[in-house]
Amino acid sequence: MSVNVSDSDSESPSSPKSETPQPTQPDRSYHENHPVQITTNRMNGGNYFRWSRSVRMYLRGRGKIGYITRDKKQPDKKGADFNTWDAENSMVMTWLVNSMTEEISANYLCYATAKDLWDNVSQMYSDLENQSQKSPEDCKHYTKTVDVSRVFKFLAGLNVEFDEVHGRILGRNPIPQIGEVFAEVRREESRTQVIGTAREINGLYYFDENLL
After folding, report:
1. Which residues contact 52 (CB under 8 A, 6 or more apart)?
2. Rg (Cα) of the chain, in Å, rounded?
3. Is there a smaller number of Cβ atoms within 10 Å at the N or the C end of the chain?
């Protein structure tokens, strides 16, 4: 007697397919998108060289060292890669500012590029550390003198329409820090732009709601 074997019975059980494991990419999203403190050596005015070395090592490890050496140049604003450059430049600036004490970082909030910020910190504090000040009071005095000089230089470069706020700031004692001065000038600029859309009648300003 012949026995018919069905196709299903004749098929051997299929063995599970082996899959080639895919290489995993390091997850840098957290470190690159959050304002982490990139070094335990926060810049306090007297440890510039140790701080700068730590920052350089961190940026080099993240592939962002070019933003403080100008190797990563700003592309044309209309180019396709400008948004990426702008975002990464801002990220590096955030890293730098967050690695300073609050008293120092307040003076470095108005720079447009990480390179400009880095150069100004270097100019200020490498000279300060080289001064070999005799006491902490000498160090504070030197820092304050440089800060006031920066305020004068910033105000001197303003247009004539800011003469009022210019005089108001210089009339204060003590002179505010450069970060505060910059913020006040920006507020004055916004106020002037709003008033420019108004009509003055008998000393009062009337605004067109459609323009606000």
Report:
1. 122, 126
2. 29
3. N
User: Which tokens belong to 132?
Assistant: 């070999």
127: nearest Cα among 145, 102, 114, 148:
145
> What pLDDT does residue 118 have?
93
Would strands 204-207 and 198-201 be described as parallel, antiparallel, or unpaired?
Answer: antiparallel
Report the C-alpha gap between 61 and 145 in whole angstroms: 36
Q: Which helix (H) or strand (E) holds 91?
A: helix 82-98
The domain boundary, picked from 64, 85, 114, lies at 114
Q: Element (H or E) spanning 56, and its range?
A: helix 48-61
Among 45-49, 72-76, 134-138, which stretch is predicted with the lowest mean pLDDT?
134-138
**Could you tell me the residue range of the domain that residue 190 belongs to?**
133-212
Q: Are residues 147 and 109 in the same domain?
A: no
Residue 118: C-alpha distances to residues 55, 91, 124, 137 (Å): 10, 13, 10, 25
pLDDT tens column, 89-112: 999 999 999 999 888 888 888 888
